[in-house]
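in:
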């Protein structure tokens, strides 16, 4: 771990109120080791830079097609087609496009530079706020994440990480001295269902949670409420029972589903099975929160919900 590390960063979002306590600046690291089909941040799945094409800005001049050294852009019936496997993220099409219709999301950034960018926001953090390292799965780039967290800690900035916990515990151990809070996703309790839906084994996620609790780490658990995947009463009760036994977090947030990210999938030419799924019904998430509170009084729900019953 050194401040000479580089991290592949998708975005930096300022004035966030959803990624931990107080006002925060959230850094989105690229790359994820789970494959949740409802992912709200598809641009963060790949660790490579991703091309985004904004159809409404494209004037059809075809300059990008000629400019691409990889011959990776062609015109089809539906408009431009990007051969993403060929793309080397050279940025030529982005620079040549006369109307800003192409964007490369995600670029390597030195940890020192990133730190200098983040520390500028210190004045608005107040007593509770700080920086949240999120993703994707931030701990895929754990050496850079540790180096960044260390610099921030030394500068007196409070740091949280937002993680799904699916990796060896030593990865977490390395960063714990430099952070004040872990936002920890527990999505599905049943091991088979977790594997089938997210393509990852949740055994290590549960074990890491238990170790965080033994360690006395400050943790907020987050459970996305996703129709047909995580939103059954049984799943919420099973997670509740687990955290009751393993150790209660400071907060357990049930996060409502929204489909505002569907344009992101379009820009990346990705299918999304949840594009027409409705917002979480208020009555349903209230019921789930009631169940969650039977195990963990700290449970609450967050996000936009649809008024009405289910
Ligand atoms: S970034 Fe470079 S390689 Fe990728 S599509 Fe654009 S011009 Fe082609
Ligand atoms: S260069 Fe830009 S405006 Fe022209 S076809 Fe390509 S994306 Fe569209």
């Amino acid at each position: 771990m050194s401040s000479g590390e580089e991290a592949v960063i998708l975005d930096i979002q300022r004035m966030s109120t959803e990624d931990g306590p107080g006002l925060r600046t959230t850094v989105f690291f690229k790359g994820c080791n789970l494959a949740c089909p409802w992912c709200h941040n598809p641009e963060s799945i790949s660790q490579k830079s991703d091309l985004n094409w904004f159809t409404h800005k494209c004037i059809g001049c075809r300059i990008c097609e000629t400019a691409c050294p990889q011959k990776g852009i062609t015109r089809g019936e539906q408009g431009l087609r990007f051969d993403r496997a060929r793309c080397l993220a050279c940025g030529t099409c982005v620079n040549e496009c006369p109307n800003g219709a192409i964007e490369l999301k995600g670029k390597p950034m030195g940890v020192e530079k990133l730190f200098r960018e983040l520390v500028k926001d210190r004045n608005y953090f107040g007593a509770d706020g700080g920086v949240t390292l999120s993703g994707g799965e931030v701990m895929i780039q754990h050496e850079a994440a540790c180096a960044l967290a260390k610099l921030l800690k030394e500068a007196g900035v409070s740091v949280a990480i937002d993680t799904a916990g699916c990796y060896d515990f030593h990865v977490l151990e390395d960063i714990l001295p430099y952070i004040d809070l872990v936002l920890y996703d527990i999505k599905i309790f049943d091991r088979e269902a977790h594997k089938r839906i997210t393509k990852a084994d949740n055994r290590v996620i549960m074990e890491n949670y238990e170790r965080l609790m033994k360690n006395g780490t400050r943790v907020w658990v987050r459970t996305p409420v996703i129709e047909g995947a995580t939103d059954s009463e049984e799943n919420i009760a099973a997670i509740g029972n687990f955290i009751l036994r393993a150790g209660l977090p400071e907060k357990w947030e049930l996060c409502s589903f929204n489909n505002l990210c569907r344009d992101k999938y379009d820009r990346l030419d990705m299918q999304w099975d949840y594009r027409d799924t409705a917002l979480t019904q208020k009555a349903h998430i209230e019921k789930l929160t009631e169940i969650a509170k039977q195990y963990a009084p700290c449970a609450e729900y967050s996000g936009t919900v649809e008024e009405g019953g289910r």
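note: The first helix runs from residue 63 to 67.
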